[in-house]
Amino acid sequence: MIEKNNKKIIRSWAFFDWANSAYNLVITSTIFPVYYAIITTTKEHGDQVSFFGKTFINTALSNYALAVAYLIMVLLLPILSSYADAKGKKKFFMTFFTYMGSLACMGLYFFKLPTLEFGIICFVLAAMGYVGGVMFNNSYLPIIASVDQQDRVSAKGFSYGYIGSVILQIICFVFVLKPELFGIVDKSFPARLSFLLVGIWWFIFAQIPFKMLPKDIPNASAVGKGILKSSFSEFSKVWKQLKEMTFLKTYLVAFFFYSMGVQTIMLAAAGFGAKVLKLESDKLIIVILIIQLVAILGAWLMSQLAKKVGNVTVLLGVVMVWIATCVCAYYITNATQFYGLAAVVGLIMGGIQSLSRSTYSKFLPANSTDTASFFSFYDATEKLSIVIGLFSFAFIEEQTGSMRNSIIALTSFFIIGLIFLILLKKIEQKAISNIVDLQP
After folding, report:
1. pLDDT value of position 438
2. Distances 249 to 241, 278, 306 between C-alpha atoms, Å
């Protein structure tokens, strides 16, 4: 039996967020988007690029590529997670995807305009590695923490992630902003060095959870079964359980819709600042640091607030703030307004990510050994929402010629998510009422 709430194990688990969040910050949010926009914008072709002979708007191509990466993982994760639960392979797959992602980041060191296709492929593989690693790491949450501690532990993980990513980000910014201090004359080198450092950082710090997290216990019923048979059997079992769980089903629908908005904004924020507001790299850096630092506070604050008023109530309030944020983003015109909005985004980003994970974890069957399979539904839901969100964002930009229209369109996703959260609140209240009625 694995000991829950062991401080050493929880700390090592949180270090996985420390390790891989550098990818999320440097590659998806800051240096890579800016570097990508610069090298793919030319006097001859403007923001048009050729990818395997087909022409795209540069930012649309990167969004499409990311969407493809997530779609592949949506299809793979249910199979792999079911197999991992059945055969006791959670840590194996967590390690595999981590190494794939970190090595792909190192490969981005060689990314220049003439190697656009290679760079996009590495970009896709890094995203797949990140998604796979996170899913299997998430599946450990209900294993290592009791229900009453999961909000706190989830927030701890995200806080470690924000702190670790900011530390590496600052190191990278020293090279990007002051290359002359190191005698660097190749303007592309600081950014490419940053991608290499992300891969190394991710690889090295991931060794902490790999060493400390408990070993998996294979499911006895899967002994002697092949990958397809054991995966299908495990998937079917979990799917049947999930269909009977009204709260989790409704929650996943709400999570699906509001995640379309949250994740798309997070991934497109730097591109919006650079392309629409014409912000320079140093100003974008300030924005991203504001978001990351405030997110630490947001993750902690929302976990504390959830203790007093409940997870669903906090999520309802946060989604309403997201809707207001999208409307404000449509109208902002300068850096100062962008800074203020970034502070709000950071607060609600840290809170909604941390609380979404722990809310799902809290309502899984007690002492379930199928945590990877259950979390594959959670992560597949999130990544599918990102696929649709990114495709919608890129399509609207291509059709209307403006990212502002893409931003305002995201409010519809948040509104639908809000409606399902309201329904979820009613289900929660009904369940509490039934428990009270049953008491003598």
Report:
1. 36
2. 10, 42, 21
Half-sphere exposure of 12 toward its Cβ, with a 13 Å CA cutoff? 14
| Token pair belonging to 423 | 């329904």
Computed from CA positions of residues 152, 154, 156, 159, in that sequence, does the dihedral angle turn out positive or negative?
Answer: negative
**pLDDT tens, 208-246?**
999 999 887 766 544 444 555 555 666 677 777 777 888
pLDDT in the model for residue 321:
94
**Segments in 52-149 forming alpha helices (H):** 58-87, 90-107, 116-138, 141-144
Q: Are 144 and 4 in contact (CB under 8 A)?
A: yes
Instruction: Give the burial class of 153: count Cβ atoms within 10 A of its Cβ; 0-12 exposed, 13-18 middle, 19 or more buried.
Output: buried
What tokens appear for 260 in the block? 């379309």
Distance CA 32, CA 131 (A): 18
**Orientation angle between helical segments 246-275 and 227-243, nearest 10 degrees:** 100
Which residue, among 113, 380, 390, has the nearest Cα to 235 in the 3D structure? 380
How far is residue 242's CA from residue 365's CA, in Å, rounded to a whole number?
A: 10
Domain spans of the chain, in order of start: 7-213+222-438
Q: Determine how many CB atoms are found less than 10 A away from the CB of residue 290.
A: 19
Stretches in the chain below the pLDDT threshold 70? 1, 218-235, 367-370, 431-440
Neighbours of 43 (CB within 10 A): 5
Give every CB contact of residue 133 below 8 A, 6+ residues apart in sequence. 16, 20, 94, 97, 98, 101, 206
272 HSE (CA, 13 A, CB side): 30
What burial class does residue 367 get, using C-beta atoms within 10 Å of its C-beta: 0-12 exposed, 13-18 middle, 19+ buried? exposed
- Residues 215, 80 contacting (CB under 8 angstroms): no
Map tokens 């809170």 to a residue: 351
Tell me, which fold does domain 7-213+222-438 have in CATH?
A: Growth Hormone; Chain: A; (1.20.1250)
| Beta bridge pairs of residue 54 | 51
Please give the sequence-ordered ranges of beta strands (E in DSSP) within 4-94, or none if there are none: 48-51, 54-57
